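Hi team,

As requested, here is the filled-out complex form for the iron/sulfur cluster run. I kept the field names the same as last time so the parser does not choke. Let me know if anything looks off before we queue the next batch.

— J.
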Amino acid sequence: MNYLFERRELLLWSVSMEEAEPSSLHIMAKPTGSICNLDCEYCFFLSKERLYPDSDFRMTSEVMREYIAQYVNAVPAGDVMIAWQGGEPMMMGLDFFAESVECARAYATPEKNIAFSIQTNGTLIDEKFCDFFRGNSFLVGLSLDGPRELHDAYRHDKSGGETFDRVVRAARMMQRRDVDFNILCSVHAANQGHPLDVYRFFRDELGVKWIQFVPIVERINADGTTLLQEGDSVTDRSVDPAAWGDFLNGVFDEWLVSDVGDVHVNFFEAAFASWAGAPALACIFAETCGGALVLEHNGDLYSCDHFVEPRHLLGNIMSAPLAELVRSEKQRDFGEAKRSALPRLCTECELLFACGGECPKNRFLLTDADDPGLNYLCAGYKAFFEHVDTPMRAMARLYRYGRNPSEIMEILAEKQAAMRSAFTKAGRNDPCPCGSRMKFKQCHGKT
Ligand code: SF4
Ligand code: SF4
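And here is what came back:
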């Protein structure tokens, strides 16, 4: 599974169609379709091979050129991100990407800034690719699930072998050659209980500043596969809802005291946007969605990366204009359903402003009132949003007063120092300085 986030905004989490300026349209293209050189157990995309039984899964030069021409023309102004994803897109080889860069640049105008990105498992990265990425300012997303044992739990190669060393080697090589990259970390049953091990590994051992976490939720279809977004049970590899909340909270607590503004974590930045009253930074937290589409290797355009399935096929860009498919009623209905299909529990939830009911793909539970459409991860998001409420309010306040939200770290450090000093001065029968209304000896002074 591959996603990528960008410096300016998070690609997977793009703004809604209604709020979107035309330039916020994002299309991720899969030049090898679902084909990958690895065999990660939780990958939702490998099984999509069954949608194209007679294909060689290689985007032709003709499709690539048509796609880029139409995509660049569909965006009137601003950034146009040519984003490659898979499967494993690097299996196309360097020449394919070199041709795509040359093609895209031919359509650049003063109003349009063409940028490039690629999401990869990293195992095919070599020095030539590094130089190419750097020379063309590619942003590379590298899939890595944490330290060795946690990463290797599900991310295997075709012969079941471990992949950790190859991915870390790619990270080191990109650092040496100054390639701009960030980490995509899937959170699943194996690493959900290790938020600090995962976060500190990325921050301290790898030295990365941009981290995107993605919860793994694999729905089991009636035939036992995970091909479609159907079914109300999940695989054992899927993240547990409560553990998802604990994972985010564990990382957040560490980030809050030392890394605000320095290490960028997708969920924290998305939450900050909500608390600051900005438009949703992530499609999953927006009221509506539909602005992040996927192009398959043969030119088929789908509503979303998570819904590459026949009922969400919009058409093929070789026979229908891409701009029309993007603006089609079918796609508008897809994006609007995110809001209209919310259960009452969500519409009345005080966290809806930040949560938005999250992604429709995860809405397969019944509420206590037997309303369908409750998000599988609701318990985790509730725990997370409630946990971050106070510091997010404080950061949003700083921001509103023109101060840097990262000042929260100094404020917290001062408060902690004052609290420590109050603890040392408190008598056993005094009220506890923490504000619990208990005696010190029954609270923080308990021996
Ligand atoms: S279906 Fe989910 S991932 Fe796709 S655009 Fe909507 S919210 Fe985003
Ligand atoms: S926290 Fe739960 S109830 Fe509230 S909006 Fe999100 S999914 Fe719905």
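Two things worth flagging: The first strand starts at residue 26 and ends at 29. Confidence is low (pLDDT under 50) at residues 1-23.

Thanks,
J.
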